[in-house]
Amino acid sequence: MKKSYAVLGISLAAIVGMGVLAGSIKGKEEERQAINQSPVVKEKGIEAKNEVWGQYFPREYNSWKLTKKSDNINDLLKAKPQLIILWAGYGFAKDYNAPRGHFYAVQDVTNTLRTGAPTGPTDGPQPAACWSCKSPDVLRLIDEKGEKDYFTGKWARWGNEVVNPIGCGDCHDSKTANLKVSRPWLIRGLESMGKKMSDMTHQDMRSLVCAQCHSEYYFDTTKETGPDGAEKITNTVTFPWKNGFKGEEVEAYYDSINFKDFTNPLSKAPILKAQHPEYETFASGIHFQRGLACADCHMPYKQEGAVKYTDHNIGNPLDNVASTCLTCHQESEAEFKRVVAVKLERKEELQKIAMDTLAKAHLEAKKAWDSGATEEEMKAALQDIRHGQWRWDYSIASHGAFFHAPEETLRLLAQANELGQEARIKIAAILAKHGVIGYEAPDFSTKEKALALIPIDLAKEITAKQQFQNGLLQQWQKEAIDKGLLNPQSREGMSNKSSYSGN
Ligand code: HEC
Ligand code: HEC
Ligand code: HEC
Ligand code: HEC
Q: What local confidence, expressed as pLDDT, does residue 34 receive?
């Protein structure tokens, strides 16, 4: 690195002359001082507005804003219709897209059919906790109201408060600008494994800021009767890490507390839905073992004139192979893209086999119930479906796992397929006992065909959502602007896309 600076310095001097170089050194010194002084963005509390940080740190802010360019909606229910069968009876069967830029986090959680069409602060299918990984306003609310109050009630309760997308205040301390983990559930999750924040190194922090959101979680639900006699429900984001990060260890934890996210109405299996265990799965891969952090690939250093800073356009490291992979590896850019593409292909192949198997198991189980099977007969098969689906989901719900931890991903997919087949063998025997031989599950090969097999009225969901978007959502935004929480200019150039709006 030092050598190339020297070469750059000599050639610059030769081309533009000493005067300009002296000026640039002076500029560099000023920049350095400005960075060392680290201005105080906010003396007390959390600054959630990214553009306020931008006044002090323009380079980081401008690169962060580029996450706006990653705006493509990729409807995964269309690409993988098996998902609709696997998640029947749960919000994900209505709408599920691939992740896109951090800039869209608030828009996407608001637009998804999963959050429904609330008509007021106490209405709607989702709890307040659904905002937790979308915005620094969440940290501001926890700071102002306390964690418990933040987690109490419905998602719609905070519609006029959570308005700024994932940004500076999520990863940095508003006073010192140092990296900071502010989400208490991550700190508790680490403690449940016997780890302490005070032991974490700077390199650990370059992953832990991401682990606040890119992790597996469930809602720990408690109920209380308030002073007014009304029932108050609190859903606290909790990391299931007590037994460890491996798929089977997390599964054992969920089994031990008898947890399920939903019951699939076709098979009646008690299902676990994996969220996005990027941090946990990354930890089993070679790059983590060799000491890399998320930021090493997703936030490379960037040179602008005399200043070196961290690129905050968090996205696909392969868009920038020269400053990510090639800082350590020697191969060509094309070779790297090929290596990653082959890993993706292998995962896609096994993933499809596992999903087809599990979807058939759900549909065949439905046939068994319809043919008079008893709970006692079905119990073991349903447990296989639960465990098989969990292992499939845990291995792929992190969209980067095929690269972060390829062997572990393929191992879990093989197990998912095996457990799904075990369930199908058991169900075939139950079907035979009830006189059904040679049953074949119906076709679920397109989004339309799969939707027709599950109890859902998607057209109704979409109409209600659009009413919400034209009504209550507009009111939320106006209130947030009036309260000074949202700067309308911060949303300039933001397209409004969703899987159902036809763009
Ligand atoms: C998802 C987490 C995350 C978000 C969001 C984020 N940063 Fe950072 N930021 C980092 C990481 C990681 C580093 C590297 C720190 C290190 O290694 O010392 C960093 C470094 C910095 C630095 C130190 C100088 C540099 O460039 O290396 C500044 C200043 C900074 N960020 C400002 C901002 C501002 C302003 C925003 C909002 C526009 C922001 N950050 C949003 C994670 C984040
Ligand atoms: C406050 C929660 C939060 C934090 C902190 C966070 N992320 Fe994210 N990240 C998300 C969410 C939510 C999405 C999906 C946004 C969407 O699709 O609307 C996402 C999307 C992404 C994507 C997909 C981007 C694209 O353009 O396809 C990558 C890559 C990513 N995050 C990496 C990271 C890394 C690396 C860090 C730490 C340096 C980090 N994230 C920190 C919540 C977070
Ligand atoms: C050694 C480099 C490297 C490290 C370290 C790394 N990633 Fe990745 N990440 C990648 C590559 C390469 C991809 C695949 C990009 C693609 O889809 O082609 C990826 C994909 C992702 C995706 C999926 C993006 C999408 O749009 O589908 C997310 C999210 C993500 N990484 C988050 C993280 C988090 C969080 C960490 C740390 C826990 C991390 N990554 C560590 C290289 C890395
Ligand atoms: C900071 C250094 C560093 C960066 C950046 C880095 N790697 Fe690596 N990579 C390593 C190390 C160290 C190993 C392990 C080598 C070993 O121990 O044999 C490794 C191993 C690998 C392997 C072989 C193991 C496997 O999982 O198949 C591949 C492929 C790979 N890296 C691809 C990438 C890609 C693609 C990127 C960019 C997105 C990248 N690396 C970025 C250091 C790095």
A: 58
Partners of residue 113 on adjacent β-strands: none
Instruction: Give the domain extent around 68.
Output: 22-239+458-503
Q: What is the Å distance from ligand 3's center to 330 Cα?
A: 20
Query: What pLDDT shows up at residue 27?
Result: 57
Return the CA Rg of the chain: 25
Would the CB of 41 count as within 6 Å of ligand 1? Answer: no
User: How many domains are there within the chain?
Assistant: 1
**What gap in Å lies between CA 404 and CA 97, rounded to an integer?**
21
CA–CA separation, 71 vs 67, rounded Å?
A: 8
pLDDT for residue 496: 87
Q: Which of 88, 85, 83, 86 is nearest to 98 (CA)?
A: 83
Q: What is the CATH number of the domain that holds 192?
A: 1.10.1130.10
Q: From the CB of 340, is ligand 3 less than 6 Å away?
A: yes
pLDDT attached to residue 494: 87
Q: What 3-state DSSP class applies to 214?
A: coil
Stretches in the chain below the pLDDT threshold 70: 1-37, 502-503
* 128 and 157 Cβ atoms separated by less than 8 Å: yes
Ligand sitting nearest the alpha carbon of 278? 3
Question: What CA–CA distances, in Å, run from 276 to 35, 76, 264, 279?
Answer: 34, 15, 20, 8
Instruction: Give the count of beta carbons closer than 10 Å to the beta carbon of residue 4.
Output: 8
pLDDT of res. 38? 77
For the Cβ of 309 lying below 6 angstroms from any atom of ligand 1, the answer is: yes
- Tell me if 482 is assigned to some domain: yes
End-to-end CA distance of the chain: 45
Per-residue confidence (pLDDT) for residue 32, from 0 to 100: 56
pTM for this structure? 0.94
Angle at 132 between CA 454 and CA 182, to 5 degrees: 155
Question: What pLDDT is recorded for position 18?
Answer: 40
- Asked whether residue 398 is assigned to any structural domain, the reply reads no
